[in-house]
Specification:
Helix content is 39%, strand content 14%. It is of the alpha/beta class.
Length: 325
């Protein structure tokens, strides 16, 4: 069971309408060349925050009421000090990590869980090596990702620590979702997904072009390890048809990049300042201003949809299932 103090904090923030989730890119460096992402094309020499910066930033997020931190990149394991980062962020928050799995060893898997990680997702987009490796731009990516899932599963230090196979749902892999769920089930891990969004690299060829929610719901009823929120899945059709309105970016969630710049979401072009210089009060005030101007409905990323789904009765019930072992 997740520590009750953390659950209580999340409930208080939820009821008070405070931000629940911060997505934090701890590095922009990446060792993959995914066709649906442009991060790997950016400068590998971009400045990165120190452990002291993460500790101070986590304190400000805690003051704001943030309960969850999603640790992302780039590829987080490109940072040799990742366990220390996780430890700094996990002292006051529930932390989850997403990785491509390439750099994960048994030792590293054990270290990140011992540092306080609540859950980890390993990205796999196809059930076969040839297709996955091609989409990720690196030969051997599939084999390393599967091995990472095995390491994480075997090296958990607490029973509540969740391991997920995470899929970027797109036009090219929609017919293989059941195979991916079965792959996850065979490895003893959960399955979660998010639909691709062209905002990442302006390539619409990956975007879904037909209704898929009913199909996903049917698979979720069939396979208990399919753990995406059912309300989140229901609104994928709405996203495909033109977008989900009333985005809660800046109100229910926020983003911090590897420089420490804060924005209402991961795709926002405008930042409101830096975590190192702003107070918690300043951050909260500026985020409220950004949210008030927000009219975007272009994405249905996991970091948005899973949080927004919690603000419906059906979605809240689905989110509470996350607490189950």
């Amino acid at each position: 069971m997740i520590p009750l103090a953390r659950i209580s904090k999340a409930c208080r923030s939820y009821l008070a309408g405070r931000p629940l989730l911060c997505s934090w890119q701890v590095t922009m460096r990446c060792n993959f060349k995914c066709g649906f992402c442009s991060y790997w094309k950016k400068s590998p020499d971009a400045p990165e925050l120190s452990i002291a910066d993460f500790k101070a930033g986590a304190g400000k997020l805690d003051e704001m009421g943030v309960s969850f931190i999603s640790i992302a990149g780039g590829e987080p394991f490109m940072r040799a000090d990742l366990p220390e980062i996780i430890k700094a962020l996990s002292q006051r928050h529930l932390t989850v990590l997403i990785t491509n799995g390439w750099l994960v060893s048994r030792k590293k898997a054990r270290e990140v869980f011992k540092s306080g990680l609540t859950g980890v997702s390993v990205s796999i987009d196809f059930p076969d090596a040839k297709s996955h490796d091609s989409q990720r731009g690196v030969e051997g990516a599939f084999e390393r990702a599967v091995r990472a899932l095995e390491f994480f599963t075997e090296e958990r230090t607490e029973p509540y620590q969740r391991v997920n196979l995470f899929c970027v749902l797109n036009r090219r892999n929609i017919e293989h979702i059941e195979e991916l769920i079965l792959l996850a089930d065979g490895l003893g891990v959960s399955f979660m997904l998010q639909p691709y969004c062209p905002m990442k690299n302006n390539d619409a060829s990956f975007k879904l072009d037909s209704k898929t929610s009913a199909r996903l719901w049917a698979l979720q009823r069939k396979y208990p390890n399919f753990r995406s929120n059912p309300e989140y899945l229901r609104r994928i059709d709405e996203y495909i048809a033109g977008g989900v309105p009333s985005c809660r970016a800046g109100k229910s969630f926020l983003n911090i990049d590897s420089y420490g710049n804060i924005s209402k979401c991961v795709e926002a072009e405008r930042n409101i300042g830096n975590i190192q210089s702003l107070t918690a009060g300043d951050i909260a005030k500026r985020l409220r201003t950004e949210h008030a101007k927000n009219k975007c409905q272009a994405c249905w990323y996991n970091c948005r949809g899973e949080i927004e789904s919690m603000h419906t009765i059906r979605g809240l019930a689905g989110a509470l299932s996350w607490l189950k072992p």
